[in-house]
Specification:
By secondary structure, this protein is an alpha/beta fold. The chain is 20% helix and 34% strand. It is built from eight helices and 25 strands. The strands form six sheets. Strands 1, 2, 3, 4, 5, 6 and 17 form a seven-stranded mixed sheet that branches. Helix 1 links the parallel strand 1 and strand 2. The termini are far apart.
Length: 416
């Protein structure tokens, strides 16, 4: 049995950043395990630009962003196992793996960082009525087929859901010569970034149909048409509002879910709101020594945020291995009025560095409101905001000094 100080499960942007951070902060033997044949994760198929604006102050494509970290890993002594599947993790921090070269192996870790990312919702999760022809796929699958495999997946396209991948694929399909007929979104607001709505839909005159959804799929061998209906305030289709769109492809961009099979099987506590594991200020889960970061913790908008969070997880994993992480009880963060969730869900002030960063999402679109930070029910600070949207993750930093002797931190949205 081989022993490592830190094992990162997942070789995407989170795993790369976390492994490098752990190694640079004192962990001597670090390993990255990746189930794909190469490092980089989802970034390898994201050939559009817009990455790295915060971390590198440059406008990079996904592969360019990933390569910056891959080069640093290769220049280090971090061990990399690609084409390797992790079957199970144990509370004693054993990692059970299998690959074609080594077969079945068991690795012992001083600390584990889970960085497996997220997956897309499929048609089965939506229960869309109609036939089951070829041409219905997730936006991410379409992105891989076009950008990596080199296949053109269709000529007349309808997209259900306005997540960022769907918006980006609307532009990508248009640039490849396809006609994107519409993007239908069941909510009264888009779930993607504003910049993607402008750059991927508005710039190409692609209509965004808010409060609409697909209510039928028609076709025998291949998709022949889809039916789109307007929905009411409860999300139910309005009779008589149906409209048929003749198309050969339906892309689904209807949400991302953290890959929680491994932490769930290990008995790690899952947060029902983020659908990822609960974490504290160190990105440590309910099992001491098992850390988590990136989209498997909660779905991020920007890879730059993933990198910054993962560097923090790597730092704390190294501190755990070195015996410097205090296991004292902390206090909970509370999502108040208008706040869907806050990460981290628990804070132990003694482990915080100068500041602690709170990530959060809002429940609906807000204009000209204030974000109120309360500590032990006392208003400590307010932030005036012109705009909040559920599709855009927000974050604030608070000083460790003001939470040293507190019992709760709460965020609320209030009218000005």
């Amino acid at each position: 049995m081989k022993h490592y100080d830190v094992i990162c499960i997942g070789g995407g942007p989170a795993g790369l950043a976390a492994a490098l951070s752990a190694r640079e902060n004192g962990a001597k033997h670090v390993c990255i395990i990746e189930r794909d044949i190469e490092l980089g994760g989802i970034l390898q198929q994201c050939i559009h630009n817009g990455f790295g604006l915060q971390v590198f102050k440059e406008d990079l494509t996904g592969p360019e962003y990933a390569q910056r970290f891959i080069d640093r890993v290769r220049a280090s002594d971090i061990e990399v196992k690609t084409d390797t599947m992790v079957l199970e993790i144990g509370k004693d921090k054993l990692v059970y793996t299998v690959n074609t070269k080594e077969g079945y192996t068991v690795l012992q870790a001083g600390a584990i960082i889970l960085t497996m990312g997220c997956r897309e919702r499929t048609r089965g999760a939506l229960v869309i009525p109609g036939t089951r022809p070829v041409g219905v796929m997730t936006a991410g699958a379409a992105q891989r087929l076009i950008n990596i495999e080199g296949y053109m997946i269709g000529k007349k396209v309808v997209i259900l859901g306005s997540g960022d991948i769907g918006l980006i694929m609307a532009r990508r399909m248009t640039l490849e010569g396809a006609k994107v007929l519409a993007v239908a979104e069941i909510m009264p607001f888009s779930s993607g970034l504003t910049r993607n709505i402008v750059q991927c839909l508005d710039d190409y005159d692609i209509p965004l149909l808010l409060q609409h959804t697909v209510t039928n799929i028609r076709g025998k061998d291949r998709v022949e048409s889809v039916e789109i209906s307007e929905v009411n305030a409860h999300g139910h289709p309005i009779p008589g509002s149906e409209k048929e769109y003749i198309c050969d492809t339906l892309l689904l961009s209807v949400g991302l879910l953290p890959e929680i099979e491994l932490p769930y099987a290990a008995g790690i506590v899952i947060d029902k709101r983020t659908r990822g594991p609960r974490v504290n200020e160190s990105m440590e889960t309910s099992i001491p020594g098992i850390f988590i970061c990136g989209n498997v913790a909660h779905v991020h908008d920007l890879v730059d945020y993933v990198t910054e969070e993962s560097e923090r997880a790597g730092y704390y994993a190294a501190q755990y291995v070195l015996g410097k992480l205090k296991e004292n009880n902390g206090f909970c963060t509370l999502a108040g009025e208008g706040i869907t969730y806050i990460v981290p869900q628990e804070i132990r002030p003694e482990n915080c560095r100068d500041t602690v960063e709170l990530f959060f999402r809002v429940s609906r679109v807000y204009h000209n409101v204030k974000l109120v930070l309360r500590i032990d029910d006392n208003v400590v600070k307010t932030y005036k905001k012109r705009h909040f949207a559920p599709g855009e993750m927000e974050r604030i930093r608070i000083s460790r000094d003001i939470i040293a002797d507190t019992e709760s931190v709460k965020l609320d949205i209030e009218e000005l």
